[in-house]
Amino acid sequence: MDMDLVVENKEGKVDFTAGGFNGLISFLNQSFSLLKWVFSTFLRAPKDLSNYGSWALITGATDGIGKAFADQVARRGLNLILIKVVAHDFSGSDASVTLESIKEAVKEVEVGVLINNVGVTYPKAMYLHEVEEEVVKGIIRVSLEGTTWVIRAVLAGMINGKRGAVVNVGSGASVVVPSHPLYTIYAATKAFACPFLF
């Protein structure tokens, strides 16, 4: 049963059903989200990252997106701790080593910005049953455990300093095609990083 809403204008009456009204609300909501994204991406002034602290820790900073993050953060005047300096391979088996090595690297500095960019995937597109067990374990260690342990290593300092920013880099594979059949584990672990809140 549709409920009729009537809006009068100078030309006459226009009838709306409840479904049409809900569609209008949905359209306006999506339009607002798009405008908000355009504003925050293209129009808003960039944040002064030094307000968060004088150091940034960037994982996966030796290549690709991580290297670009490192370049941009350095241009904004922050000191960098790159995961290569920490010299830890996230695909190793002992998570406590990850936590301790990063805590050691940041104990004398105030990390204000953490960019979790580290990630690995399969050597080629494969269905889940075709991926070797060690590859699956490595992806989980890097994208789930590594992300969690790095945040844990710097979070206490951010809380004590009452400032800080954490950026977790996800992947379109987890958002655009959320059940990507040829990269299932990669997509699932990157989906973990996007809404990770503490």
Automatic annotation (TrEMBL):
Transmembrane segments: none annotated. The keyword Flavoprotein does not apply. It comes from the Eukaryota. Pfam families: adh_short. Keywords: Oxidoreductase. GO terms for molecular function: ketoreductase activity. Coiled coil: none annotated. GO terms for cellular component: endoplasmic reticulum. The keyword Oxidoreductase applies. This is Steroid dehydrogenase.
